Amino acid sequence: MLELIDVGKTYESPGNAEGVCVLKRISLKLEEGRSMVIVGPSGCGKSTLLNIIGALDRPSSGRVLFDDRDLATLDDGELARIRNKQIGFVFQLHHLLPQCTVLENVLVPTLAGKDHSSMQATHDRATNLLERVGLKDFLMHRPGELSGGQRQRVAVVRALINRPKLLLADEPTGSLDREASENIADLLVELNQSEKVTLIVVTHSHELAERIGQVMELKEGSLKDGNS
Q1: Domain for residue 71, yes or no?
Q2: Of the candidates 215, 168, 158, which has an alpha carbon nearest to the alpha carbon of residue 36?
Q3: Considering its fold, how many domains does the chain have in total?
């Protein structure tokens, strides 16, 4: 479902003709419905790699194949449609709209291209997912009325609302306390299995990594088996 072939990323740098190399010939394969954790110290390029996988950034070299499509061959409009419909994103900061209710925040990604006949089904999916993550009684609350862990659960549901094939989570527990972090980790594992969504989690937390699945380590720009 996802394959990276010799992916590299180099940023231009004043005074450095060769630029700054962040990623070096990254290759990986991930089958549909599987999960992977990418660990490594802060600043090692984990978020850069996730942004390339999620079509938010383009590699300097190599290829990214998503669902048998080479992302380098797609224009910005096609990439935007893939990000909206087929890839869900969860970040360290939830990025919820403070003026909107929990339910409205979850429905934001569905606003583009939805026809009237599908609105009720989408609304039902949103409420069902929120109930599954323990937020049945908070649909009309605003983000400021929720705890950090609750806000992150809303962000996870929002990422899943369009039934994506791939869910990317960038330090999803980085701003949470231990209990809330464990709850989010359990939620990601459960949704990976029940929603059959392929999951990639980027984290510096080895505790979170142990709860997810296959572990890869990003170090000095190279990706290696984190279990070896």
Answers
A1: no
A2: 215
A3: 1
The answer to whether 93 and 47 are in contact (CB under 8 A) is no
Q: Is residue 77 part of a domain?
A: no
Does a structural domain hold residue 10? no
In a domain, 44, yes or no: yes
Inter-CA distances, 173 with 19, 127, 151, 201, Å? 32, 23, 11, 10
Can you give the pTM of this predicted structure?
0.90
DSSP 152-190: HHHHHHHHHTT--SEEEEESTTTTS-HHHHHHHHHHHHH
- Expressed as residue numbers, the domain containing 179 is 31-59+82-225
Q: Supply the CATH number for residue 95's domain.
A: 3.40.50.300
Using one digit for the tens of pLDDT, what is the confidence trace for 73-119? 999 999 999 999 999 999 888 889 999 999 999 999 998 765 555 78
> What is the rounded average pLDDT of the residues 16-35?
91
Which residue reads 């983000």 in tokens? 143
How many whole angstroms separate alpha carbon 154 and alpha carbon 138? Answer: 10
Beta bridge partners of 11: 20
CB atoms within 10 A of CB 56: 15
Task: Work out the mean pLDDT of the chain and round it to a whole number.
Answer: 90
Q: Which amino acid is at 98?
A: P
Buried b (16+ CB within 10 A) or exposed e, 178-217: eebbbbbbebbbebbeebebbbbbbbebeebbebbbbbbb
DSSP three-state, residue 201: strand
- Give pLDDT, residue 205: 78
